Amino acid sequence: MIRKNASEMAAALAAKEISSVELVNAHFDRIAEVDTQVKAFLYLDKDGALSQAKAVDDARAKGESLAPLAGVPVALKDIFTQKGVPTTAGSKILEGWRPPYDATVTANLKKNGIVILGKTNMDEFAMGSSTENSAYHPTHNPWDLTRIPGGSGGGSSASLAAFEAPLALGTDTGGSIRQPAAVTGTVGVKPTYGAVSRYGMIAFSSSLDQGGPCARTVLDAALLHEAIAGHDPKDSTSINAPTPKVVDAAKRADVKGLKIGVIKELQGDGYQKGVLNRFNESIELLSSLGAEIVEVSCPSFEYALAAYYLIAPSECSSNLARFDAMRYGLRVGAGDAEAVMSATREAGFGREVKRRIILGTYALSSGYYDAYYGSAQKVRTLIMQDYAKAFAGVDVLVSPTAPTTAFKIGEKSNDPLAMYLNDVATIPVNLAGICGMSLPSGLADEDNLPTGFQIMAPAMEDQRLYNVGAALEAALLSKWGAPLLAKAPALGGSK
Prior knowledge:
Elements lengths: L5 H9 L5 H19 L2 E4 L1 H16 L11 E5 L26 H8 L3 E6 L33 H8 L5 E5 L6 H7 L2 E4 L20 E5 L2 H11 L17 H7 L6 E5 L9 H16 L3 E5 L7 H16 L17 H12 L2 H14 L5 H22 L4 E5 L15 H5 L6 H6 L2 E9 L6 E8 L4 H19 L15
Parallel strand pairs: 2-3, 2-4, 7-8, 7-9
Antiparallel strand pairs: 1-3, 4-6, 5-6, 5-10, 9-11, 10-11
Helix pairs in contact: 2-3, 7-8, 8-16, 10-12, 10-13
């Protein structure tokens, strides 16, 4: 049962072929079997999960009306607060902190009866592309345990690929849902900025951060998307508009007559040959399904990476100022407040977090604000304009999700610039506030590891992602004869 899709699990639960308690226990058994190798989780909430599962089973036995995913398990990235459950954002500075409230996303999961298994590992405060920056341990890619599972949400993506959970939640500031999906052969969606509440999601870069669904199929992602999205008065950036009908779009899966734009700037030099081969094959499949393929140029994308690494650190330096050893979290040292705060931040923050705080503080400092942060915001406007111009002529834009497959753990940990380049194709979506999806496009020729296909759509047109994604997924599934994850090496001896 653990290898079925979430939608199939939901159908089995509705037909009373299995109980939620049985399903949750099966996933905890799988976690016990393989997570010593994968290390996807930071914390398991067994008592809480089984209590939620029993409540769903009792409600179903009484004939109560339940949400589509009621009783299905989910893994929650450790950046979302969950009342009474340790929430660390992958950092020592929050080690042992148990929030007194639920994030809106967490509350929405509970409202829909989706059972939270536990909290997944991540790069500290979502700063990284490999989950090597976690203060606790790196997560390993189930396809090859010597390789990274992407980041910052590598724990969530790895839990899906290892069949430890059928659904997961992530956050995407510059690609932290989509890039892990690409390198683990799973599906990840960054919804339109403001479509999913950020209340209770520990902030990294407030104008870029966005929670979203991670799953093994496009339909499963759509079902989770509808469960977590919606307007939230607690979040001032939340969009007060109906959630796009993404489930209907995933079921429609018809690209006939659609215009699909291939972004010229997001391919070529720096992209692995096997990644481009699978991308081009996917383009041919979409064309065979009746889509019109055109090339699109977005010249400002050349500057997206540089702009992002000024905007995001600047906002992080402001957001992380709240961790001052005075109100919650770690507290070390002695003396006056300044001495305690300095000692606590030195002990509690990791190397990458410190690097970005310093970079952001410098970019915001007197005399440099206009030259750095101000200029980066101007580039952001140009990127938005490039997208607007492109979407005037096409329905969706596409590119490879990541330029390479998963690299070896430790391979880039001492080279920040090389690490940052992993997000070159995903960052423009966040800067513009639009929506994007990554789905598996096959295995690269060089290393037999997963590659990702990225789809982008205008703000609040998220349904276009799911329509095109589901159509491509079905075509690829027909071509492969089995889901891509069926080709992954077995972990723990389980079949």
